[in-house]
What does this fold into?
Amino acid sequence: MERAAIPEPPGFAELSKAEQVLKLQALWGCIAEQPGDLPVPGSHLEFAEVRLAEYLRDPRALTRPTKFLDRLAKKRR
It folds into this structure.
């Protein structure tokens, strides 16, 4: 996915990395207060619908989160 060209806020580069992260967390907190306002790509909705249908067909076939995380960890090695 290509990044959008968004101008850096004035003074952001002068902040330490820790301060930049705190600033981003605060901004994300403001965004997250109204999650219904966030656009959701159609492809994400379609994926969620497929996964929900799979789950409703056979809930036991769902991968447990711990197994999924173990599988991801093995791929990183």
